[in-house]
Amino acid sequence: MSATPQHRFEALLQALRSALQDGEQFTLGYSAEASQFIRFNHAKVRQAGAVSQASAQLRLVREGRQAEQQFTLCGDDALDQQRLHDALAQLRQTLPLLAVDPYLSLDDSAWQSHSQQDHALPDPAEVLALVEREAGQLDLVGIYAAGPICRGFASSFGAFGWHQATSFNFDWSLFHANGEAVKANYAGQAWDAAAFVERLRLAREQLAFLGRPAISLKPGSYRAYLAPAAMDEIAGMLGWGGFSAQALATGNSPLQRLYSGDAQLSPLVSFSEQVSGSLSPAFSDEGLARRDVRLIGEGRALDRLVSARSAAEFAQLANGADSYEAPCALSLAPGSLAPEQILARLGTGLYISNLWYLNYSDLPAARMTGLTRFATFWVEQGQIQGPVSTMRFDDTLYNLLGSQLEDLTRERELILSTSTYGQRQTGSSHLPGALIKGLTLTL
Predict the structure, then answer these.
(1) Nearest-CA neighbor of 215 among 327, 376, 73, 100?
(2) Minimal CA–CA distance to 199: which of 210, 212, 188, 215?
(3) Do the strands 392-396 and 405-416 form a parallel or antiparallel pair, or are they unpaired?
(4) Locate the Metalloprotease TldD/E C-terminal domain: which residues (predicted)?
(5) To 5 degrees, how large is the angle CA 316–CA 100–CA 243?
(6) 10 Å Cβ neighbour count for 70?
(7) Is the dihedral of CA 334, 227, 405, 400 positive or negative?
(8) Contact present, 367 and 388 (Cβ < 8 Å)
């Protein structure tokens, strides 16, 4: 019987402990995946394959100095342990050349964490047959990625964490003959063919509206509904230092005014880092046990994300944040807007499925700019009239989720990271849609 990823990690850990010298401390991280990828064009398979990979991150600490090295693993215990010993030797040569790190902070607790989220995924042939049956005549372009993702961590102090979660992510667009497109996604851990068919049906409905003449709007403020995918782009921007203890301590956070008490958001807004029950491991890349963190409660700033380094530098209590102090499982509490009431409550205004190319136009003011893209529609009296030409918005978070926020949807969407850069990611967001009284379009 072949060794499991956890057994391989434990074998690597045992070899490392045996090779440790007096006065040395270590942390050992582990990442692995066994993923099936299928790329579609015109609803036909254009590329299919499997990726099985693993890597380790070794950090060596001695006399206040630290250095780390990442190396690829091949699955052969003897070869992997040799790579470990080579990395250890290089780090030993490097450490004396480094200065003492004044903010080095190691968790010396022997915490234990184990999470095994195994869910049966459909056979790829089943997915292909479903796509052929439901979208065979459509210009569907996308990628299906599925399989287990593993993360491990161990330290010389006895801490040990293992996380394995199986998930799928089907990210696709439906293209109209005129070149316009509807973007959609279905992701999770338990595949439901009926749920996928429903997502596809909604996308096909929007695709039909893209055939109508495009409507051009003048710059101004418009009533708008932001679908969960559009909200995900805004929430993603908040990960750029919004909740970071380091960014807040140095005055570089877009939410500086919120955390200083000079501004607040709508009482409808409550953000949390909801690690429990998510696809993310219950431990950070620095080896801290993660916990759920209430970031914003009823529009007011509460806690921040504090890494081990920030805790040492700014005299704060670490709460399991990764070194970059961005949310890994951001959750926005739902509101009361029922899905079937969205268009009626919107009345006349913009239905925005996606936002694109966001950036800060004024970071201290939390002012964001970006483009509408894919299925953005003009609605009159609760009825979709047609697609809207691509527009740029420029507005502050204190408007969008503050004075101009009217309601949030009762149902939320789980959005998993589609990033495959280097490896599949475990990040996610759980977000409702938002009804906005006024969204500023600039051109």
Answers:
(1) 376
(2) 188
(3) unpaired
(4) 219-441
(5) 30
(6) 12
(7) positive
(8) no
The 10 Å Cβ neighbour count of residue 394 is 16
Region of residue 111 (left: phi > 0; alpha: psi -120 to 50; beta: else)? beta
H helical segments located in 58-216: 77-94, 124-135, 193-209
Which residues have a Cβ under 8 Å from the Cβ of 153 and sit 6 or more positions away?
27, 28, 29, 30, 159, 160, 161, 281, 283, 285, 287
3-class DSSP assignment, residue 64: coil
Q: Where are the domains of the chain?
A: 5-201, 220-441
Eight-state DSSP code of residue 266: -
Distances, alpha carbon 1 to alpha carbons 4, 77, 142, in Å: 9, 14, 36
Contact 6, 101 (CB under 8 A): no
Whole-number Å distance between alpha carbons of 147 and 28: 24
DSSP annotation of 199 reads: H
The per-residue pLDDT for 1 is 45
Contact 296, 215 (CB under 8 A): no
Q: Can you list the residues of the chain whose pLDDT is less than 70?
A: 1-2
pLDDT at 277: 87
Helices 193-209 and 124-135 pack at an angle, to 10 degrees, of 30
| Position 290, amino acid | R
Contact 407, 335 (CB under 8 A): yes
Q: pLDDT tens for residues 43-67? A: 999 999 999 999 999 999 999 999 9
pLDDT in tens, 11-33: 999 999 999 999 999 999 999 99
Measured distance CA(339)–CA(332) in Å, rounded: 17
Phi, psi at 87, each rounded to 5°? -65, -40
